[in-house]
Amino acid sequence: MGGGARELAGYLAALGGWVAAVAAAVLPQWRQSSYAGDAIITAVGLHEGLWMSCAAQSTGQVQCRLHDSLLSLDVHIQTSRALMVISLLLGFFGIIVSVVGMKCTKVGEEDPVTKSRIAVAGGVLFILSGLCTLAAVSLYAAQVTYEFFRESTVPINARYEFGSALFVGWGAASLTVLGGSLLCCSCPAKERRGQQYYRQSQPSTAREYV
């Protein structure tokens, strides 16, 4: 795979991961009611996310309510919120920086070494964004697992388990880190050596023709 194709593939993967991270941050299904056990004791399915909690009736009606207070939330929710916001901001700046540094764009093409360095910087931003998403989702999942096994007095079908947003977040983190890694494969040092060799070889070639 050529350098330009590798950068384009990395950018598209990172962009897809960032979009998936946005979806994961917005979705309220970070944890949901567990339906394990012998009998379902309620006809209402509960979903909770970073920003709201929802109740789905058996008739298909869904009612959602935003979290009332920021300071009254659990620490893991506040931490996951902060990590997801930081992740989305890093990914947004990574999108802008990577477009400037990619070989397939015309911006700054007169200086390929600096252009490659900008592409690497965009890849680093994407990797940091993916790691923040991974940390937020994994922290929330660890808390859900801890509460599921800790509350022994609560029936299993009244506890919470992983929601679909967690899996979306894990996939988003993987895509973003993969895309950022491909963008970081741009090596400005090789390009610098190639330019120096080309400049040194030009005078000798010109003297031969004279």
TrEMBL record:
Gene3D superfamilies: 1.20.140.150. One of its GO terms (molecular function) is structural molecule activity. One of its GO terms (cellular component) is bicellular tight junction. The chain crosses the membrane at residues 82-102, 118-142, 162-185. It comes from the Eukaryota. Belongs to the claudin family. This is Claudin. The gene is CLDN19_1.
